[in-house]
Amino acid sequence: MPLAVPEPHAHDAPVSPWRHRRRVSGLVLVLVVAAGFAPVPGAVVAQQSLPADPPTASDRAAASGRPATTALVAERSSSRDAAALAAEAAAVADAAERTAEREAAASEAAARAAQQKATDAASEKAAAEKAAAAQTAAAQTAAAKKQAAQKAAEKQAALDAGPARLGARGAKTLAVQKRLVAHGWRVAADGDFGPATDRALRAFQSSRGLTADGVAGDRTVAALNAAPRATSGGTGSASSGGSSSGGSSGGSGAPAKSAPQAASAPSGGVVAQTNWYRAQAGCGPLSVDSRLGAAAQGHVNDMAAKGYFAHDSLDGTTFDQRIRRAGYGAPGGENLARGQSSATQVLRDWMASPGHRANIVNCAFRTIGVGQSGSYWAQDFGY
């Protein structure tokens, strides 16, 4: 009997041709079986069927019992939900990345701040240590200055307590200076035993046959306290009418004995006769120094060329400056003369002048240099 094919429900979706063909094939097979046909023994039954279509939303809806429209909406909603979730995940990841970057920047800033703080602390510590070291050094310097001043005061006190000598100050020095002035030496009576007083005292000691050490010991003080000797005058005149001028850098003249007669005067040049007079006064001989000789010769040449006669050059240079410029570091004194024609005559005139004689017989002098230009003569002495 023929099989009845049920009508599709109104809510079923249209059947695709492929699905219809599968249904027909199945119906034919059922009909064959129902008709009692049996396959021939040994025969191979072959059947070819079309591949099944992938399930659609309608299929899934039919399987689930939901309408097809509802399934499509659900499928689309799922797609939108997945996209939204992906976008949300991306946004969360981006926000997390920005948060991590901000945290990293904050950490780096905190590290820099900590490092700067440590640097500032180290700088403050170094500054404090430097200030402390400076204070310590200042305290040490002040203590050293105080100690040096104390030692200097003690040394000065000891110096002032002893015999008057170079560097001493006070009443003893003032008394020595006043006695030197009384004996004809021009020194400042100021109570300060400076180089000028030292040179004057040494010259005085030489003129009295004492050791010219510049110390006002008992014998020197006794000689100073004795009555001043009569002198032979401040200048000696030459046969040509010229005058001699001289003296140590102290500018003083020393009392002198009467000049020896020509018969008793030595022979020879200026140096030889100078040493002869020194020997008579108990002083050692002077040695010739070329630097002193250069200074003396330069000055007499200048005086002869420019027509003047003075210890100071026309440009204001003093005798000791000339000697130092010549390379000699310890100038002692200078004697000048003009108008004499021989060494014997110039030595006689110098010995007749207290200041010149004091230079010649100053036992503290060790060296001499001589210059002559025509009738101009010069002796430069050095310690």
Automatic annotation (TrEMBL):
Keywords noted in UniProt: Coiled coil, Membrane, Transmembrane, Transmembrane helix
Residue spans of biased composition, Low complexity class: 226-242, 254-267
ATP-binding found in the keyword field: no
Pfam families, alphabetized: CAP (PF00188), PG_binding_1 (PF01471)
Biased composition (Gly residues): 243-253
Top-rank taxon: Bacteria
Official protein name in the record: Uncharacterized protein YkwD
Region of interest: Disordered: 226-267
Any coiled-coil regions, as ranges: 97-131
Residues annotated as transmembrane: 26-46
PANTHER family registered for this protein in UniProt: SCP DOMAIN-CONTAINING PROTEIN
Residue ranges occupied by any Peptidoglycan binding-like domain in the UniProt entry: 170-224
Presence of the UniProt keyword Transferase in the record: no
Residue intervals of the SCP domain: 273-374
